[in-house]
Amino acid sequence: MLSRLDLRAFDADLRVALARPALADDHQQRRELVAAVIAEVRDRGDAALRELTERFDGVRVGDLHVHRDELQSALDACDPHLVVALEFARDQILAYHEAQREHEARHERMGVQVRELILPVDRAGCYVPGGLAAYPSTVLMTVVAAKVAGVPSVALCTPPGANGHPSAVTLAAALIAGADDVYRVGGVQAIAALAYGTESILPADVIVGPGNAFVTEAKRQVIGEVGIDALAGPSELVVVADGTTDPDLVAADLLAQAEHGPGGQAIVLSWHESALDAVDEALATQLAVTVRRDEVEATLATGGRAVLVASPDQAIAVSNAIAPEHLQLMCADPEDLVSLVRHAGAVFVGPWAPAVIGDYVAGVNHVLPTGAAARFSSALRVADFQKHVHVVTLDRSALGRVGPFATTIADAEGLDAHARSIRIRESRP
Fold first, then answer.
1. φ and ψ of 26, to 5 deg
2. Cα 232–176–183 angle (5° rounding)?
3. What is the full DSSP assignment across 254-319?
4. Statement to judge: residues 241 and 224 lie in one domain
């Protein structure tokens, strides 16, 4: 079920040992297709969006804007229990992201007063996929974070279904989250519209949210025109288990992330070989009744691994080398290992904290770094929608104290005009 890897005696670069087989990649073809779509939207605006939506989604759309009465109708039609759950999730996300608000820094030394302004971008674009599933949780994660940051205008793009309307639960979540504008457009064309603007869609300053390989490539190509959160990839989970861990729980959690589809990783690490055997057996049993079996099997075929390690410390070393999107510590005394974690998008501690809770109601953001990007990036957060602007104030006496140091450096760099900018002030009465 899971490919087995024994690293107990391995003492070289773990990234080499953990390297996955190269998958067939048509990146050049994808890059060219994405560039062509972006160019169409940039050049022809709404007309291109409608044609591309018909080409890629198989549906004709008229008004690209989803108006408030349609959002309200979708919310009214939702199961009341689902509405309660979405509102609870929103409040959890709101509370955690409120706690991320940063205070403006202030500093004074040698008479130089420095402070910073923390300012939201003017407009944020949130992308929420459609296709095989609806993702109201991603609506909440992206829109709520932007709203907490103080963004005055938050746009949401999501693809239409066969009836020309986005998923009703996605629209309901958009109203609950407080999106200002919702558009029935998805894929590469949505990213292009948010980056460059069309007759109907104003351009954004930041684009966030996950998507397929084409959406990710589109975000890569518009970097510089706008800011982005990250280049998201398939879902990943690493579980650290030992002889005390319930294998059924591990199997259930691996399947939960694997059902997102191919390209992801579902990995269990243990220093107890019997624990790996038990997880394999539990996976086989649960896979037989899994609804999205094709997606799970595709993920496990290329990214399913059971890794035997020598100790808890080596388990975390292996996890750090993988830098997974989600890390679950399900062994005895999991808190002892938290301080060893260097690279992970989110860490879930103990048997009662599955990553799925983080996907929905823990309050943390589920837009997380993938593809080992946890080595240098973080979960989507309030700061992704904000800018830090330095504000510097000096009086004459302060300039007199610090100016000579600046002119000395400017002279060393051969920048005469820089030095003159200070010296001309020194000569003023």
1. -105, 45
2. 60
3. HHHHHTT-TT-EEEEEES-HHHHHHHHHHHHHHHTT-TTHHHHHHHHHHHEEEEE-SSHHHHHHHH
4. no
Query: Are 313 and 238 contained in the same domain?
Result: yes
SS3 243: coil
- Based on the fold, state whether residues 37 and 141 are members of the same structural domain: yes
Pairwise CA distance, residues 327 & 377, whole Å: 15
pLDDT of residue 23: 57
Does pTM top 0.90 for this prediction?
A: yes
Per-residue pLDDT band at 291 (split at 50, 70, 90): very high
Cα gap 138→365, rounded to integer Å: 9
Q: Which residues are catalytic?
A: 325-326
d(C-alpha 171, C-alpha 167), whole Å: 6
Query: Is residue 132 classed exposed, middle or buried when 0-12, 13-18 and 19+ CB atoms within 10 A define those classes?
Result: exposed
Flag the least confident range among 129-138, 306-315, 402-411: 129-138
The CATH number of whichever domain residue 77 belongs to comes to: 3.40.50.1980
| pLDDT, averaged across the chain | 95
Count of domains forming the chain:
3
| φ and ψ of 127, to 5 deg | -105, 130
Looking at the domain assignment, is residue 115 inside a domain? no
Domain range enclosing 206: 27-101+120-228
At 125 the three-state DSSP class reads strand
CB 305 within 8 A of CB 5: yes
Per-residue pLDDT at 24 exceeds 60: no
